[in-house]
Fold Sulfate transporter 3.1.
Amino acid sequence: MANSRHMVNFAVPRRFITTFKKDCKETFFPDDPFRKFRHDRPLQKFKKTVQYFIPVFEWLPAYNFRLLRYDLLAGITITTLAIPQGISYAKLADLPPIIGLYSSFVPPFIYALFGSSKNLAVGTVAACSLLLHETLGAAVSSKDDPTLYLHLIFTSTFFTGIFQTALGFSRLGILVDFLSHSTITGFMGGTAIIICLQQLKGLLGLKHFTTDTDVVSVIKAVFRYKDECKWQSVVAGLVFLCFLQTARYVRQRKPKLFWVSAISPMAVVVAGCLYAYFGKGEQHGIAIVGDLKKGLNPISIHYLNFDSRYLPVTIRAGVVTGLIAMVEGIAIGRSFAIIKNEQVDGNKEIIAFGFMNIVGSFTSCYLTTGPFSKTAVNVSSGCKSAMSNVVQGACMMLTLLFLAPVFSYTPLVALAAIITSAMLGLINYEEMYHLFQVDKFDFLICMAAFFGVSFKSMDVGLLLSVGLSLLRALLYVARPAPCKLGKLPETSLYRDAEQYPETTSLEGILVIQLGSPIYFANCTYIRERILRYIYEENDASQTEVEHLLLDLSGVSSTDMSGIETFIELGRVLKGKNIKLGIVNPRIEVLEKMTLAKFVNVIGKQAFHLSVEEAIQYCRFTLDDTRKPTAEPSFRNDDAA
Amino acid sequence: MANSRHMVNFAVPRRFITTFKKDCKETFFPDDPFRKFRHDRPLQKFKKTVQYFIPVFEWLPAYNFRLLRYDLLAGITITTLAIPQGISYAKLADLPPIIGLYSSFVPPFIYALFGSSKNLAVGTVAACSLLLHETLGAAVSSKDDPTLYLHLIFTSTFFTGIFQTALGFSRLGILVDFLSHSTITGFMGGTAIIICLQQLKGLLGLKHFTTDTDVVSVIKAVFRYKDECKWQSVVAGLVFLCFLQTARYVRQRKPKLFWVSAISPMAVVVAGCLYAYFGKGEQHGIAIVGDLKKGLNPISIHYLNFDSRYLPVTIRAGVVTGLIAMVEGIAIGRSFAIIKNEQVDGNKEIIAFGFMNIVGSFTSCYLTTGPFSKTAVNVSSGCKSAMSNVVQGACMMLTLLFLAPVFSYTPLVALAAIITSAMLGLINYEEMYHLFQVDKFDFLICMAAFFGVSFKSMDVGLLLSVGLSLLRALLYVARPAPCKLGKLPETSLYRDAEQYPETTSLEGILVIQLGSPIYFANCTYIRERILRYIYEENDASQTEVEHLLLDLSGVSSTDMSGIETFIELGRVLKGKNIKLGIVNPRIEVLEKMTLAKFVNVIGKQAFHLSVEEAIQYCRFTLDDTRKPTAEPSFRNDDAA
């Protein structure tokens, strides 16, 4: 027996401070961001630390003209998208359209300084715009008191910034992990549905509409005001929409023609403006944006409103939209980083978003993040660094200084078509079907978000879906799926008896593999399940179980309740004349077993390094005379 | 190579309905309660089903006179405890003292019918009595409108019953598992502190006191009303307390003399009554209970108050106290069942508690469960079955019919001494210290409950502690502690390199063991941590990692995000020219990998049954000419 030289390592338990430090590191710094410069000299270290916190110092010195050419093209392309999107999403939040343009000027510069992603394009997002309107609109009507409403929007953007910065500095980017991919898919899909429905107002040219966002209210509103419908608007809307969808289809078929899709919204806006200006569209029922003044962002820091009446609603709006914006930004940033084989530090990204929103709230911008559509266009236009955001900001500055009034002729129907087309791309049918095929519970989580958002409201859908995800996480935790191991013939491997039906069970010895941490939430279950395994084993075979071996290789940690379960289990088994053996306990589990004196209670000889070794030990102690069958199988085993 | 005959089992994934049924069974019926009579004939099955749901039919036919002798003694002993405790705890809830006696008459009979524990003694509990007063007292003053207050108490008891029954029938006893042992220890300790402080009123003979329960308010109140203090009361209180503590000490030293401690509260009451009656104690500043009418429980079903004004508070009080009472009852029931090697079905117990409280609320009883102290006395008096509860009920009936007025002379100070003595026993210093030694986080959870309850309020303490427990559960889930495996020299075992420093690492091959389920909450962490392992390995050794093996033996399940992480990881590794291998995936994980086409992407040859086999496969594919060192170690390995 080659293994006999090695024993389970009963070293003295590590000190609390050691394990505590290690746990903190794993919890908050799993990617070990300071790894690279731990061994550097002070000056070098300082330089690298500054570079770490302000990434622009890292990439700018190595930046060159060749890269700038790529970024210039990408920056101009995303600006052509930023103008129509900015105006549209500001309308979605019921804000003056110019605020949407302001929001694509200042924040990109801030992101270029602090952001760590090379692919992200900064801008406003549809879902958060609508959610801001839904939340703040409930406190202050954007129609009756637009100034107060605007100030509350700035205030909630400020709180978003503070919240994001605080999360990032306390390394709580881990929170983002609790929004699962299924939740995001469902939430995006549901949001796309309700945003598309909101566009019916613009597409049909209605004057009145509902402020509710759920499917039922919107459809009711369309039927109520159907007489206001303008056929000119419908025709124009359909033409624009067909054009945009065709451009999208072209990109899908020929990825090289991505620019067709990227500039198509701008083309629609320009066409719309020309028609409205020269064709006197307004007289034919085509409403326009109107009122876009020249000039850069005015300072808005003195408009922040901390009135205690509105504080709860602005903080809530800031935190919720901040969280969603953050998830969208990090998710898209990570996706492209994975494709391009780069690393993105989630917590640093959150800090960059936070700074961006704080500065934004001082300069008449509202909530910005890294939107899916803009970032995708940025990547396919060939961006190489955050410089494309600088280009975007610069182009937007020129637009604000010279071109803004031109866009005041943009027809609302063009904006509605642009939003609808963008949103239709966000409903990911294939992904939902894929979820249904692979994991029904994930599909349920996705559908909860989808239907919750479309039929109730965005917060309800999100909460429902996150609640289900957490419930599932707790169920995973509460029901950790133990399994009975059997021996694969002619090997020394022990594997799940259900998964490998060819395994043979061992007379009088029951081997159970436990997975996942054992602690308060699952210890009662584990005790009852193990006792049931014993009953079932006794029912199935002629010989009674005399040894129970627990394979703890997969148990990464445990707590006091878990240890007490082992102690109780030992006592119960003693009453049944069954000996308990522990196989391959991990370091943290063994430490706690030692501290709680469990090792002393069952004795060190009950701990084994492998199932094979444990079974050999059990066979020696089994009464050979009473069990004549044990002898040959033991020999057989030794030969393996 | 003996293993070569066996392969990872790529069987067709099981149908959804099969896995769904299995998951439901593991979640709601882990103990498989119907196992015993699944194969019986219909009539037999019906009989056993009735016996299962109404356990009295199971044990009563086999009951005999010999067992009755034990239960008679136990029943009488717990009645002597039930009378003083009933009166005291009713005072704690600011109810007429007779309600406390009523509550030990009807519920024990109901429990004897439906309860599955042989050890539990039914009665009222201090913590819930105080909590009822704290919650309902905030809505209706027990001083100003005692009738309404009493009716609300009955109503909340009714809701407790409904809530418990519903939980039991929907097999949600799993909820109890989420209250960890540490939370219960801290909560009990904190409650004991505040209940003891409440007794200062009785012990000092004060007339005025605060209605707040937290330490600060109570100490302030004692100083404010210190002039009302009666020295006679203080002396009597100290004498009683010394006597009770001595009796408790005697029991601890000589367990055979348990009855000294068990009947000591009754002795205190009798002594107090005698002094109050013959010594005219009331004239010397010793207040008495007063007003205990003869007669059995009046019907109270028509007093249940479903007024919508009070509904929220009664439901809340009913649910919260019901949950705490349930946890206490199940915890104590399980503890003794484990000691005596019996099984207790948590869900059946909850149903029995529920019935007990519903019937109780119809018959002038308030919340009952299985209290720690009474159950412990019941066991040490030698109870054999639920018959001891029947005896308790019968004795209480006789008391109510004939003796009740006698107890109206009980001095309040005697009751205060009894409660204080009982509560001092609930502060478990040793357990707290033990928690501190073994698991610091468990200690924190315990202290959160302890200080939360003593310095704020009972709900706050409980919520704080449960919140921390859940946070910990989620952290376990979010940070699943992967480890790097090394080879134990001269064996074919691969173990945690940190735990077994003698292990050797393998040139160009990195083996990572993942534990616990992999899913949305931890998949980002796992991806980043694995990449960090690769960097660290590349930094530490001269040769680059060429093969990454993931040992998934301990990964019991996964979800869509987990699968996507594997797919992404495969892509990232491909970019780095590292080959990914999967070792021993469990059935559920492999099924999802197959459904998500991950198996097709990396190919079936990348799946291995054991680390040993995987490493041999990797060694064959490693370029031998470039790595002259690989050859000898491979030979060495083959020989092991």
Observations:
- Chain B touches chain A through 103 residues (CB under 8 Å).
- Strands of chain B lie at 483-487, 494-496, 509-515, 547-554, 579-583, 607-608.
- Chain B has 27 helices and six strands.
